[in-house]
Structure formats: C-alpha cells, structure tokens
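Regression report. Comparing outputs from two consecutive submissions.

Submission 1:
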Amino acid sequence: MTRIRSQPDEDRIAAFDDLMAEAMASAEYFGHRQHIHLTWMAVRKYGVPAAVSLVSEGIQRTARYEGAPQKYHATISRAWVELVGHHMAEDDAETFAAFTEHHPSLLDKRLLTRFYRPATLASTPARTGWVPPDLAPFPWQEANH
C-alpha cells in the first residue's frame, strides 16, 4: 500500500484527483456508484485509515469548489469508506465490477439507514464530524460485542 497521510497537501490533492478521474472516466456525474468506486480504489491503494482521510478531504474540497460545501457530510463519507474497507477485507476481487457483484448492497445509497436513524444523519454533529451508528453496529463491530 502507498503511504498518503504523511505526503504534502499537493500530493494528497493529486492522489484524490487521480482517483476521481478514474472513477469518473465513464460517468457523466458523480453519483453513488462513482463514490463507491473512488472509495474502493482509495482503500485498495492506501488502506482504510488513509482512505478515510483522503476521500473525506477530497470530497469536502470538491464540494467547496463546486460552491456547495453543505453537500459534504463527515459521517457519511467515513462510514462508506469503512463499509467498503470491511467488505474488501473479506474479498480479493481484482476489479470494481467483481467487487460490486459480490457486494451489491454497497450500491444501495440507502444502506446506511440500516445503521443510522435519519435524524442522526441529518444532525449537525454527524454532518461536521464522526457519529457512530445508533440503530445497529457495523458488521465488524458486532464481533466485538
């Protein structure tokens, strides 16, 4: 895995931009599938902890650039990276298509409602920082209970 956390900001921006370009190569807009694809590539290349930071910072920067900073959501960004990372740890799929074929639930943008109440996700604390699930634990948390 490539180290990204200790790289200068310019390198981190370039790394995100490269991933975004690849995720958008055959798409007209950045939808949920592209978000999951970008996340899959980031986790594959950098690992979950670095991908959380890289994807979150990149999406937040992109939202600001597009004049829509309110579209960035800290909890949702981190939760998707952790969910993708969890499934990648169980799956050695070489392609994104194979990965999503094995884990189609990740393409359902409502998946987080299994773990979070809508009011929780709509809250300011969840939008601006990390809030743990309040409906059900994530799959990797269940093993710890």
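Submission 2:
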Amino acid sequence: MSLVTLLPFIVLIGAMFLMTRSAKKKQQAAAQMRNEMQPGSGVRTIGGIYATVKEVNEETVLLDAGPGVDLLFAKNSIGAVLSDDEYNRIVHGIEHDLKSDPDVIPDDASSLTETDETDEPAADASAASDDKSVDLGKKDTTEKPADAEPAEVAEAKTDDEPKKTDGDSEAK
C-alpha cells in the first residue's frame, strides 16, 4: 500500500485521539470540581436545582434546597459548583458590588432625556414647539365635520369598521 492510501486512515485516527483526549480532560476537570465541594458552597445540579451543600460523602452529596428541604444526590449529578457571588445573584437576587461601580451603563434611556439646569431655557423652547401631538396612525379617507353630533360620529365609525364573522368565509 502506498502512503496516499494510508493518509486518510492516519488522519482519522489522529482526529479520534484528539477528541477523546479533550473529552477526558473535561471529565477530569468535572471530577476535580466535584471533589473540591465543601459544605456551605452553592451548587447547581444537572437538573437545574440550585442548593447549598450540607454534607459531602464518598459517592453522595446532601443538599439543602430550602428551609426543611434536604436532598440526597449522587456526586455525578452536580453540574457546577458556583462562587458565593454567583449563587447569591441567582438564588437570592443579590447584586454584589454593581451599585458601587460608577461606570455602569443604565438599563433605560432616562439618562439621555435628563437635562441640566443650564439648558432649561433651551428645553422650554423645544417643549413649546412640541405642543402639537403628531399622529402617526392611519388617516381616515372620509373627513368628518368637526361639529357633528356624537350619535352621528358613532354611526359613522360603525359603518367604517370591518364586520366580524364567526370564522366561516364564502371564499372556501
């Protein structure tokens, strides 16, 4: 056999070796993470349950999922050991050190619409020009007289509205 015929098999064997090697590294990292669990650390199970480790045994972990709720899980069912900040943020909604950071971008556009006290005359002038409300909706093709009685206006509206059907159409 020539080298050209053996080359695809060699590449295939090399790719399989690299894939199994990376999978083995991931398994070792997960096993090390599970072995480093200590009572009091927050975890997430592979089923998505967030709890605090109460007791660690050789093959099992006792978790405290809430007041009076103790759960016994296999060590392999622990998906992630969370840091204290991440666990408190997810479970209790406590944001850590985000309030003290002055460079945080606001979630809304309120900071864009706030005006300084020096710009008040300019803001009053722009507010006076914006007194008219702009209707971007669809305009009616028929103009109604401004002095029409309310009954006539209501009657005109009902004529313009499409009629509702019970779902049966004649175009079937």
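Expected: both submissions complete independently.
Actual: both completed, but the second showed a warning that disappeared on reload.
Relevant detail on submission 2: The chain is about 40% helix and 15% strand.
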